[in-house]
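Input.
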Amino acid sequence: MGDVKAVVFPACAALCALAFLYKVRDLRHRRNDPALRALLVAFFCKGVSFTLSTPLVAQAVDVAVGVNDLGALGIHLFGGVASSAAFLTAIVYWVYPREEARRRALVRLLAAVVVAVVMVGLWIAAKNGSHQRSAHYLLQNANRPAVAAYLLLYVSAFGAGMIEIIRLCLRYGRVAGRQWLRRGLHTTAIGASACLVYCLNRLFVLISVQCGLDPLDWELLTPIANGTGIFFLVAGLTMPSWGPRLSEGRRLARSFVAYQRLHPLWHALSTAVPGIALDPQSGNPLARLLPRDTDFRLYRRVIEIQDGLRALRPYMSPDVVSAAQRSAHEAGLAGDALRARVQAVSLAAALRAKRDNRKQPAGEPAPVGPEAAGGGGYADELAWLLKVAREYTALPALERNER
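Output.
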């Protein structure tokens, strides 16, 4: 068991340290934000608690100070009472108006102070008659009245905080306006639930001792519950900060992929109709792989492709369109897949006709471009052109007029 804790708890402490360092940067711009300050206190206290929970560290602290089981007291005060009150304070400021949040937070902080003072008193009382350090303070001393009262108070305060966090997160997570705040609250509720499992496990120690059972038999649940809890707490409480950046990164990645997928279609059109390219250097391999302002360049690429398609209308043959439709039907295509195939085949034929300067007879040209599929806004146009680009790229090189 000690081996598991020696791995899990330092990892949890490191996670808390990373969360603290990640959020402390925000103090430059949000120095007077009480929720941020409470969150930093919570991560700091939890990190101290997990550090002390590492068996070798707790033993070293006791030896250095010369007071047995002082590390255990630090674990429970920092990791249970102080951190849960700080986590709860941060969430209260998230979900309530500032004045109401201040009042509610003050009540919870005062309650945490009272609990901490009583726990210290019980811990001191339990020291009388005890001259040996306990490797598992709560488990090995739960049969003593002072320690039993200490354990009950600790678990009650920690568990009550987790229950309140779960209640607030589930209640306001359903109505939170910002997507990542909503996700963060729900994730935080998962973490608090895991910590509540730890509290129930510790509470069961009192019952198991009376029944003659050995709580060490299921002590593995402690690092599992604590590790799971802090992971989701850290993820949920920092999610409103890094979540939007993640969404922006995914959006930029999608834009970059779309930009690359449209390149063969754009290249064919800009070669046939050079005037459509606002920036001729955009065809440069380096500019293609490392485009600046990807959103703007993607938007320009869509516009330029549309301009190229309109410029090819005089070279589009209705007979080619009809033949492409029959071929697509025979291939079992339907809907957008059929229209995209027809568009790609017709475009390839129009490019060959443009190269050979073979315009169609005067009259209404065959539809070429997204309007053939019904049109729409920018997102619809982009989705349509991506389908056409995929079909165009799948055509044989000879049919695409590549030499």
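The chain has two domains: 2-243, 250-394.
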